Each structure stands twice: as C-alpha cells, then as structure tokens.
C-alpha cells in the first residue's frame, strides 16, 4: 500500500493544512515484531491537527485533495468527506431497516483468498431432511447447569468432555452434528456463504456489529447440547477459558495433550504451554538484554487493566459494548448500519481478537485455525474462548450503570440465525430468545474477577512539567508548534498525533451526564491483513514510551483478524471505532478543555482513517 508518510525533514503543505514529522524513539521493547510484517520502526512521528469543525469538510476541497494522491491512497481514503459531513454517532433506534436473517436457499461455498488464487471452502450445512425449520423455544423448568473454568476441571469431568468430543468427531461427515459441520457454521456466517432473506445482493456477516454476542451465544448453546446428547447427559456444560483472570491466562492444559480430541495441531507452539496471553494484542520483541521486557507479573497487570478498559471504562452503553446496529434491506453510502461489519464492541474488537491471534498457528496464509474466522471453529479451544466471551456479556449487565442494558429495538430482537440442534433438527433462533443465559438453562462457575480493581491512573508527566500543571495545560502549552492537515490519514509505521476539537461549552454542559466518545470513522484496511493500533489522549509527546493500558491516557485499541474472503467481497474493509472518553477526561482533569490531542500508535498492519471527531451518543 502506498503511504503518505514524509521524511523527517519534509513539511507537506496543502490548502490550509500541513504536516510535519518529529523524532520518536521508544525503548527497544516497545517496538512490535509480527509474523508476516516487518517490525515497525518508530523512528519518526507524524504530528497532525484537524481544525475542521468537528469533522465537517467541504466536498469540493476534498475532491481536489484526493487528486494529490495515487490510486491506492484514494481507495483507502474514499468516503472521508462523506463520513465527515454525516453524523455517524447516532441513536441506532432511529435507523430504518429490516432484521437480519440468513437465506438458507442462497448458501454457497465460502471462498478464501490464498494470495495466489481463490480457494472454495464448503461451509454450508447439510440439506434439510424435510422442508421444515423449527422456531426455537427456550427450555422450560430445567435446572441451571454451570459451565466450569477450564483450568479448574477434575479428571472425571475431563473424561466426560473428551468422550463427548470424540463421539462428535466420529459422527458421519454428513451429520450436521459432526464436529466439522459444526465448525463450518462459523465459516458460513462470516465468509460470505449466506445472503440475507429478501436481499440476495447483501451478504450476511455476524462479526463487528450488534449481532456478535447473540450469534456466538446460540452457536455455543447448540454445540453444548449436542455434546450432552452424545454422552446422554442433558446437564453437561462446556468449560470456559478464564483468560481474564491470572490463573487462566495461558492456554488451558486440558487442550494441550496431542492425543486428546481437544487438541488442534494448528496452534502457535511458541505460546505453549505456559505463555501468558497479551489481551492488548501485541508481541514483545525477544531480546535478552531488554530491560523493559514484559515479565509475567507485568503482563498479568497489563491484562487486568485491558479488561477494566473494555468492560468498565469504555462499555457504559449497549452500543459501546455490543457494537453498531447492522440492518438488512437498506442501501446507503453514508449510513454504516447498512453495511456488514459496521463496528464491533469493546470486547469483540479487543480481548476477543487478541486471543484468536494468540492461539492461531504461524502458518500462511492466515494463521489458521484460530487466527482466521473461516477456520476458527475447527479448534476445540475456540468454544472455550467464546464461552468466556459470552460470560463477559453476563458480567457486563451486572456492573453499575443505568445504561448497561441490552438494546430493546425490534430490528435487533427479531434478527435470527440458523443452527442444527441435538436431534439434527434445523432451528431458527431470534436474538430475543437468548438475552438471558439462565433462561437457556446455563450460567458460569463463580470465580474471582480481579480486573474490577484495576482502574488506570494518569502516567507521570514528562520532566519539567510542574506538579500543579495538569495534562490539559501541559499539552496546550506545547500545541503552538503543530501544523494542520486534512483527512484521510494513513497509519502504517509511525505514530500520529491529531488535535481534535470537543463539542462547544454549551453542549458539554447540556450533556454533562452523557458519555463523551471519540469516533474514528471510515477505517479502511485490506480484508486479508491483521491490524492493530492503540489510541491515547493528551499523552506526553516528549516521552519516548507510548501509553499502556494502565495509563489513564490510554483509551483503547483497534484490532482486526484476516478475513481471507476478498474473493467474495470488496478487497477493502470499511469500519469504525468508538472509544469512551468521559472517565479519561475526568482522570486527566481536562473536562473543560476545548480540544484534546489524540495519539494513534500502529502495532501491526496499515489502515486509513477517514475522520476523527467527538460526540456524545455511543
């Protein structure tokens, strides 16, 4: 991909905008090494500021601006003016569209782009024996079965679990309850196999939207019921991988025996058997002399701060936690809800992706199995991972906050999915059927939740900043040197700083009880790339260490798994990122500042960002 990065000594001047670079040399361990990418070299930092009125831009000027870049830059940035001129941060209940429903008759082979050709992957379910699809009814009067933490199960449980999995894998290949048939459910719903009912030109996608949690909940529900049926135990409950707690931050031992049906050879061997997962999705450079290399204690601490960020600080509303609305039957170039993968929620876009990448093997092209959506369900560990993801949904609704409740819009509640049950019947499940796990007959073993005690604190200011001078004053004092540039921004190997205006004082007073959010719009990336970047506000530009999750300045990250489905879809993926700001503004004592400085630190891959703004609806 082409990049708009200039040499450190270059100043690019555009109409009313300019860009400059400055030295940015972090400690060695802060640079990231990635499997398929050269390590990012933080040898320069772009400093950008946007003086557009909260993201609004002139279309005519935008066209002339695009003419200054080559075709690939235009491809990355196209739509920046559209997104800048349209308020994307809007109440999802005001959106007009239909509930999402998969069209079974349209199901075709999924495709995976190997880089050299398109590989057809048969992911569709077996044909119905009859013509009837049963509407799901939650079980009545059943006792609650408790899913155990994988690292705490005993021998008797393990024997039962392995027996069930072995029998599932031994079922005839055309039995919809067979393990590979079950794995294909994930593939079919995320790699372009289904179209939507009534809209044959619109593909179905269950990731990066408000469909993520409901789909995966019911996916695991039926998988679990099949296992119980195979061992004649209706009370059987699958384990969850307790990766949000120190005792569970390594791959569970029960999945690491090569002779067990729980084993998958397509995993990253470097992360076995006792390597801690990094929930912020980044690799540390392996240097014996690196004095800042993450120790296990530091990694645990970092993971707990990440969980607090994604579950408490940044997930105060349904839209922040679940993701953006995704509607069927609407077409719009400016309304993200009319497109697949409009925006994931905090957990989906964060710890969920980080664990997928951690487990996936270092195999080309896409780190199968867990490292790619189309193949993830082939690893038995996938179901334990998503058990914990589902557990986060339960926990989220118990945390303090008046807005921590699910959507109540019919267009969400009536969206539906198709699964085969334990009796090999095809079942249609609506979102409204799965809002409460106890209604479905299961809950999770009670374990400690240590991240609730991991609230981040402001990092120390750079030397020379007085103790009585807060972060807002410090940044304001150094803001005079910044120059200005128009969006889109290409984020690749160097960190970028952008000065973003906040809503005016009158609006801030009026909405003082609402959540202020940072909105990164029209994020464009290659669908086949693995991408990650961190976001912080008002950090110290003279400090050579990027902010970390334990710092109050750190407000979140963006992560993406390779789709491998560009044969079916557009080569570029367009999505968005919303990050809650209210807690960070209060912790940094900058609630009354008129602008903030946003820092974007790339860790993997390359993206273009069409616009950045601040709003209140999340």
TrEMBL record:
Gene3D superfamilies to which the protein is assigned, alphabetical? Di-copper center containing domain from catechol oxidase
Provide the Tyrosinase copper-binding domain boundaries: 207-224, 379-390
Pfam families, alphabetized = PPO1_DWL, PPO1_KFDV, Tyrosinase
Q: Cite the GO molecular-function annotations of the record.
A: catechol oxidase activity; metal ion binding
**Residues that bind Cu cation B, according to the entry?**
352, 356, 386
Instruction: Detail the disulphide connectivity of this chain as listed in its UniProt entry.
Output: 107-124, 123-187
Biological process (GO) annotations held by this record are: pigment biosynthetic process
- Cofactor detail note: Binds 2 copper ions per subunit.
- The answer to whether keyword Metal-binding applies is yes
- PROSITE patterns given for it? TYROSINASE_1 (PS00497), TYROSINASE_2 (PS00498)
Task: Identify the SUPFAM superfamilies for this entry.
Answer: Di-copper centre-containing domain
What are the protein's UniProt keywords? Answer: Copper, Disulfide bond, Metal-binding, Oxidoreductase, Thioether bond
Q: Would the keyword Oxidoreductase turn up in this protein's UniProt record?
A: yes
Residue segments, region Disordered = 453-478
Where do we see the 2'-(S-cysteinyl)-histidine (Cys-His) cross-link in this protein? 190-207
Binding-site positions, Cu cation A: 186, 207, 216
**Origin: domain of life:** Eukaryota
Tell me its cofactors.
Cu(2+)
Xref: InterPro entries: Di-copper_centre_dom_sf, Polyphenol_oxidase, Polyphenol_oxidase_C, Polyphenol_oxidase_cen, Tyrosinase/Hemocyanin, Tyrosinase_Cu-bd
Q: Which family does it belong to?
A: Belongs to the tyrosinase family.
Q: Which PANTHER family match?
A: POLYPHENOL OXIDASE, CHLOROPLASTIC-LIKE (PTHR11474:SF87), TYROSINASE FAMILY MEMBER (PTHR11474)
| Protein name per Swiss-Prot or TrEMBL | Tyrosinase copper-binding domain-containing protein
List the top taxonomic levels of the source: Eukaryota, Viridiplantae, Streptophyta, Embryophyta, Tracheophyta
